[in-house]
């Protein structure tokens, strides 16, 4: 029971911080709202980078961590100002710099270390920076977060009650096909029933697509993060949230769905 209350309190604080950052613009104005959400995205992205480096260092990788943290911060900053030209410039320069510094490091695996240095910028910072893009459709972003939570909760409960067939035992022994199907169905129902209350201009098929993305692509994100952890024998990526694990544990699904949701919104909605 003590563990339950710790998990509940931790999840409540996390939800309040996350949703408070997203809706902060309603209280302090759009400009300050974007700054607050950007600060939250930067905090989470740097936390994800820290945990990612912790994981790969257990496999004898030697990423240039200060450089990686700087790239993560630059990625968030680029999206604050919506400077696409600077984004292209930064991506090219970051690759050149990451490879160039290996000349002075005497690494036995220079290309691998350079790529490990860069990966948090793409795996964590870029998806989280896209929240700033979706901030202009704040209710869509919140509904996607809700559908991810609904999918995860019902998948866990469904798998515990009726789950028999393991989905991917090598990377996530507790995940079952039955639980996953229940989670997807619950996310779709939430999108179709609750989504129109959040955003009245979207069509029912938009919510259907977004619900499928949040459940199916989100599950792939969860499995991918589990693969990374289990490759080095870790149960949790960190302990920032008592009872829930680390940054990567909490944001693994969102890191995968945000690029897909942003692309769908940009092409078909906005």
Walk me through the structure.
With 270 residues, the chain is mainly alpha-helical. Helices cover 78% and strands 3% of the residues. It has helices at residues 2-23, 25-28, 30-57, 65-81, 84-100, 110-134, 138-162, 177-198, 204-230, 247-269; strands spanning 166-168, 172-176. It has a two-stranded antiparallel ribbon with strand order 1-2. It is globular, with a radius of gyration of 19 Å. The chain starts with a helix and ends with a helix. The mean pLDDT is 87.
The number of distinct β-strands equals 2
Instruction: State the distance separating the first and last CA atoms.
Output: 46 Å
* Shape summary: globular
Q: What share of residues is helical?
A: over 70%
Largest sheet, in brief, is: 2 strands, antiparallel
Q: Pairing-aware structural class of the strands and helices? A: mainly alpha
How are the strands ordered across the major sheet?
Answer: 1-2
Low-confidence stretches: none
The ordered string of helix (H) and strand (E) elements is HHHHHHHEEHHH
Q: What's the total helix number?
A: 10
Portion of residues in beta strands equals under 5%
What's the overall average pLDDT, rounded? 87
Compute the CA-based radius of gyration. 19 Å
Short overview:
This protein is mainly α and 270 residues long. The protein has ten helices and two strands; from the N terminus they run αααααααββααα.
Q: Layout of SSEs?
A:
Elements: H1 2-23, H2 25-28, H3 30-57, H4 65-81, H5 84-100, H6 110-134, H7 138-162, E1 166-168, E2 172-176, H8 177-198, H9 204-230, H10 247-269
Antiparallel strand pairs: 1-2
Helix pairs in contact: 1-3, 3-4, 3-6, 4-5, 4-6, 5-6, 6-10, 7-8, 7-9, 8-9, 9-10
